[in-house]
Design brief:
Elements: E1 5-9, E2 12-15, E3 21-28, E4 35-42, E5 59-63, E6 77-79, E7 84-91, E8 102-112, E9 119-128, E10 134-139, E11 142-145, E12 148-157, E13 163-170, E14 176-181, E15 184-187, E16 192-201, E17 211-221, E18 244-252, H1 258-281, E19 300-306, E20 309-314, E21 322-328, E22 334-340, E23 346-350, E24 357-366, E25 369-370, E26 377-380, H2 389-393, H3 396-402, H4 411-420, H5 422-425, H6 428-436, E27 453-460, H7 466-480, E28 485-489, E29 503-510, H8 513-526, E30 535-538
Parallel strand pairs: 2-9, 11-18
Antiparallel strand pairs: 1-3, 3-7, 4-6, 4-8, 5-7, 8-9, 10-12, 12-16, 13-15, 13-17, 14-16, 17-18, 19-20, 20-23, 21-22, 21-24, 24-25, 24-26, 27-29, 27-30, 28-29
Length: about 550
């Protein structure tokens, strides 16, 4: 018994989800008897492990002259010897995520009802239209805060093709700055993803009423390809099928609320009343600092914070006018006397020799009376990093000339890079010494005077090396525009109080908070493509200077 001869027209067809297309199957009977044939649509979707359906589940075989085939167990097609018969296969892919867009192969098998082993299979292709159906949700829709608000953007892909999206946020008044993490997401068919969004005000308000600042979050194709749009419908806005948009708002509260102002006023009134009461009730027998006698001896501790610096800490005492910190030599003699303010409880001491023991003692001062000095406390500074050896062994002129090799690089960023180098290139003995000492801040502190404020023009979370790389690149871009800037790792400079932020990019120091804020606004106005928004200024070092005697 001869296999039937099968022809398919067309071999390749295109169809949109929710639509229909058809192909014509012609069967020639080259046998000697009347044959009945069964026509089946096959696919290779089974076994893929995906929740998808192939052409076999959304196709139908119909006779060319109309009606239905194979009713009541009859064959789909009956053909006389030497004759041909025709059937039509209709493909109707459903809408949704179960039918992926793109090229889809299928096969049609024509088998004899007399002898099932007598059959012919012919293959074809369907080009299924790609449909992108994105959905975006913002949680919460409105956040509230004095400086910043946090949101979560939930994206879902209900189309039949994967999407690679770039998430951006913008506000019409440019009153907010945004941080999107991650800014690019991959969305497979039927998948969802979450993106963290932080909205921060560009202009904090000291007093006043809360202000609502609206913004829009948009998820658009990350490759920048033009987005096809549906034909315009009269009275309806244009629809971008490859873009998802959601609106939100940040409710900005003033820094000083009415309750804070009222509470501060009551505190001032109370302090004034207590002061007046003390002045009226103090008699000749009232004690002053001099009459309180000798102050207690401070309890002091010291720890090494770097090859050339230590941190001296003590428990602050009541009713003292200050402290005196004494540095001792190897024989216990005082070499340096440093007066300190009474409100301090710790102070850094820098410019020390590496790999040596440094000892200190302290006395409290009350009027002209000084307490007994505390017992000496010592700390051993670690060995300097191997990368510092050429600078220390060479003459001063060579050290000065070597510095310009890091031109365009911030001082602290460079220190962080050279500190990490000995872990792979330095001698084994030096590496062992470095790992035995707790992580310490770089030996070069930021070039800011005590009490100065620094404008923050960039914040980079420390995710691996991405934070340092972003901060360094911003410094290079600013310096290329003639603006001096510095990248600072806040974990190495705890005085900033922002260790969880990672890396900051700072401008030159200013005397007041207002001057630093104005400096950042000037740079932002001149270079908006580099500085998107201004953070509140910070003080990179302690506001109380350490004087050396």
């Amino acid at each position: 018994m001869a296999d039937p001869v099968v022809e398919l027209e067309p071999v390749a067809a295109a169809v949109e989800p929710g639509g229909q297309t058809r192909v014509v199957v012609t069967v020639v009977n080259e046998g000697t008897i009347v044959e009945g044939y069964r026509v089946e649509v096959l696919d290779d979707v089974t076994g893929t492990g995906r929740d998808v359906v192939g052409p076999a589940s959304w196709s139908e075989v119909l006779p060319a002259e109309g009606g239905r085939t194979g009713e009541g167990g009859e064959p789909d097609l009956t053909v006389y010897p030497g004759q041909q018969g025709v059937v039509v296969v209709v493909f109707s892919p459903p809408v949704g995520t179960r039918v992926p867009g793109g090229r889809c192969a299928f096969a049609i098998r024509v088998s004899s009802v007399v002898d099932p082993d007598t059959s012919t299979v012919i293959e074809g292709d369907l080009d299924i239209g790609k449909v992108t159906a994105l959905q975006a949700k913002l949680v919460p829709v409105t956040s509230t805060g004095r400086w910043r608000g946090k949101h979560l953007v939930e994206l879902s892909n209900w189309g039949n093709t994967p999407a690679r999206l770039r998430v951006v946020a913008e506000d019409p008044d440019r009153a907010l700055g945004f941080l999107v993490q991650p800014d690019t997401v991959e969305l497979p068919v039927g998948a969802s993803a979450q993106v963290r969004l932080k909205a921060r005000t560009r202009k904090p308000t000291l007093r006043g009423t809360a202000a609502r600042l609206p913004f829009t979050v948009r998820a658009e194709p990350a490759d920048g390809a033009p987005t096809p749009q549906a034909p315009p419908v009269p009275g309806m806005p244009l629809v971008e099928p490859h873009t998802a948009t959601v609106d939100g708002a940040f409710n900005q509260k003033p820094i000083l609320t009415k309750g804070v102002v009222l509470g501060a006023g009551l505190v001032l009134v109370g302090v004034a009343g207590l002061t007046a009461y003390g002045l009226m009730t103090r008699g000749d027998g009232a004690q002053n600092f001099q009459e309180l006698g000798v102050p207690d001896t401070p309890e002091v501790s010291v720890e090494a914070t770097g090859p050339e610096s230590v941190r001296v800490s003590w428990i602050p005492l009541d009713q003292v006018e200050g402290y005196k910190l004494f540095q001792l030599d190897a024989q216990g003699a005082v070499t340096t006397e440093m007066p300190l303010a009474p409100e301090l409880g710790a102070t850094p001491v820098e410019g020390l020799a590496p790999d040596q023991e440094h000892c200190f003692t302290m006395a409290a001062v009350r009027g002209e009376v000084q307490s007994p000095q505390s017992a000496p406390v010592c700390a051993h500074t670690p060995v300097a990093a191997p990368t510092d050896e050429p600078t220390t062994t060479g003459p001063p002129e060579e050290t000065t000339e070597a510095a310009p090799t890091t031109e365009g690089q911030p001082t602290d960023t460079g220190a962080a890079e050279t500190t990490g180098a000995p872990t792979t290139d330095g001698p084994a003995e030096t590496g062992a010494t470095a790992t035995a000492v707790p992580p310490a801040p770089p030996t070069d502190e930021p070039p800011f005077e005590p009490g100065e404020w620094a404008a923050v023009v960039g914040v980079f979370p420390a995710l691996g090396t991405a934070g340092e790389t972003g901060a360094t690149q911003l410094v290079e871009d600013l310096e290329a525009e003639g603006v001096e800037a510095l990248a600072v790792n806040t974990e190495e400079f705890p005085d900033l109080g922002l260790a969880e932020q990672g890396w900051l990019v700072l401008l030159d120091g200013k005397t007041t908070f207002e001057e630093a804020s104005q400096a950042c606004q000037d740079v932002q106005a001149a270079l908006p493509e580099l500085v998107g928004f201004c953070n509140p200024p910070v003080q990179p070092v302690s506001p109380v200077p350490v004087e050396t005697g």
